[in-house]
Amino acid sequence: xxxxxxxxxxxxxxxxxxxxxxxxxxxxxxxxxxxxxxxxxxxxxxxxxxxxxxxxxxxxxxxxxxxxxxxx
Length: 72
Fold this sequence. Notes:
- The chain is mainly α and 72 residues long.
- Helices cover 75% and strands 0% of the residues.
């Protein structure tokens, strides 16, 4: 999938403040960061947003759910 599509989908998910949507947005951003079509700065920005999403979530389950979903 094209990284722009992943980034747009992540933005849509971030517009809805639910844990599941933040997990989905983090997964989409992490996947976009793997794309060679992005510059190193763009990949770093995606990964920084993933870190920020993980820090903003008060639930310990966020990291566990993200890691399980990322394994797919």
